[in-house]
Specification:
5-stranded parallel sheet
């Protein structure tokens, strides 16, 4: 009953970048929203990364001082902490200035979001069933469901790349 994760636009590109980051032992950051959906999405992503032996960075913005979603300062702070890949969960699709700042400082960003937007953000990869051009028909899923599908795609990509055999 589970859909093929690759029906979501941008999913394969996102999973391949994730696989590359794990293979190169890059520092990966999870940037989550502060609501329940964002917290569940962050927990799924962090648990998966830690199970694979990674030591991810978690960033949840302070609602009162930072507001909603990624900011340019947050993206620069993640890069300064050594992250080369950030994955936003339940936010990021409308954070153009933050994504431009990330790109400028050498931080690739995968946006996993389900909020409707009218344009593609300037992210490395944008996976969003409610984005222009996505024909998956999965417009009803929450961010935690989208994160789960991303991890299923990542698992497939890692297996196909031989990551599990080579990492022991």
């Amino acid at each position: 009953l589970m859909p093929d994760p690759y029906v979501l636009s941008g999913m394969k590109k996102a999973a391949e970048r994730f696989t590359q980051a794990l293979g190169a032992r890059e520092t990966i950051a999870a940037f989550g929203d502060y609501d329940v959906d964002g917290a569940c999405s962050s927990a799924l992503l962090l648990n998966y990364l830690r199970t694979l032996g990674a030591q991810p960075i978690l960033y949840i913005p302070d609602r009162m001082t930072e507001g909603y979603g990624p900011s340019p300062n947050a993206m620069r702070a993640l890069r300064e902490k050594g992250a080369t890949l950030a994955i936003t969960v339940d936010c990021g699709a409308a954070a153009d200035s933050a994504l431009e700042a990330a790109k400028a400082c050498g931080l690739d960003v995968i946006v996993l979001d389900h909020h409707a937007v009218d344009h593609q953000p300037p992210a490395f990869a944008h996976v969003n069933p409610n984005a222009p051009g996505d024909t998956s028909g999965l417009t009803y899923i929450c961010a935690a469901g989208l994160t789960f599908l991303f991890l299923a795609a990542a698992q497939r990509c890692l297996r196909e790349a031989g990551w599990f055999k080579s990492s022991g």
